[in-house]
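Q: Hi! Curious about what Acyclic terpene utilisation N-terminal domain-containing protein looks like structurally. Here's the sequence.
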Amino acid sequence: MEEVRILAASGMLGAGFSEKSFERGLSLRPHVIACDGGSTDGGPTSLGLGSGTHPTKSLKRDLRLMMKGRDRLKVPMIVGSCGTAGGDDGVKRVVDLVLEIAREEGMTFKLAVIRSEQDRDYLKQRYAENRISALRNAPPIDEKVFDRSLHIVGMMGPEPIIAALKEGADIILAGRASDTSLYAALPLLKGFAPGPIWHAAKTIECGASASVNRKRPDSMFAWIREDHFDVEPMDPDNHVSPQSVASHTLYENADPHLVVEPSGVLDTAEARYEQVTERAVRVYGSNFRYSDPYTIKLEGVELVGYQHVIIGGVRDPYIIRQLDSWLDAMKHKMGERVQEIFGGSVGEDDYSIHCRVYGRDGTMGKLEPNTETAKDVGLVFTVTAGDEATSGTIAKSFAHLAVHYPIPEWGGLITGMAFPYSPAEINRGAAYRFNLHHVVVPDTPYEMFPTTYLEVAA
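A: Let's find out. The predicted structure is below.
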């Protein structure tokens, strides 16, 4: 093969793409159609609940178009990080949709399902062998973290996907996977140079996001050749530039030149970007260095508790001038009230009340460089406790206390906060946090990712 042609349907399954753009991509005869299905961007809830970012109707719409395109061209189709987090529940949901579409459309194909949810005993063994290590800013862990975790996934590289391609899979649905691995798998299998492969994969992993006029999630196309790759958005009203392609290596990345994968590091420091047409860019000089040892990133979640949220607004200048001390005193007073309500059975370690101040530093917190408070601030209180009833009781009581909490300048009863909703407290249900930001060293790239095959008949 002189080149491998890849069609990235969109930046994330369920986010959508233009049918016209996708059809144009199909007309260029791709050797593979792929789409990333997930991310940790939305936080830990998707992994904790097994839920997804996008609704079922959106997922099914995108899957149907991709499957019909794949069926027409008879090329592989790959979706990674199924169900957003890539846990077993999310993978099952996407598998069920694919089988449902197959029945509706009368399709026949070989399906590969690659799981990424991890066995706790396996991870405990690796931990005991000192084969699990922390990434930067990772929380400290001990063996108990594996038992506390509700779900743990490993982020697979391209190797399990390549193995499924070798087995003749027409559609591959993978659990948590490196976004780029979906696009790197086929050209690596075909023996192309890893530098252009991984850089092209990084460029198209978010669909058309590396383009100049991105108006919506859409399709992107890449041509991977021996010493370079070309990339072009499929919307004829859009284009890429050397700057837009080069800058995408910084997206979700700490280093503008180095992109870390399970098997190594993409180095774009010597890459050269050329505008080859009005809409396409060609890239030379990308390098890839294989790493030893091979590592798999772990993502785990645990239950924090149950939460209620209270949203309020304050415009009183006297309160705003002493906002922090007012909030601190309010929370201290609520501590006394909790003791009264629960008769001492709920202590200060059994719940928390956290407040974000929008209009000052609500978005960036301690990183906010300008902390001048506006004349109008929004307050978002989060009440967390070990069970839903306790959280709700504290939230209801706190909302009433907060709305009338006094300041020294005013005598008598005041109303210092406005609530946009009634009731003021909103039940968020279960709340989760990530508890693993670590890598494990497996014996092989495959052992953590069992694969099953299914012959789907019309």
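A: A fun detail: Residues 143 and 178 are 26 Å apart (CA to CA).
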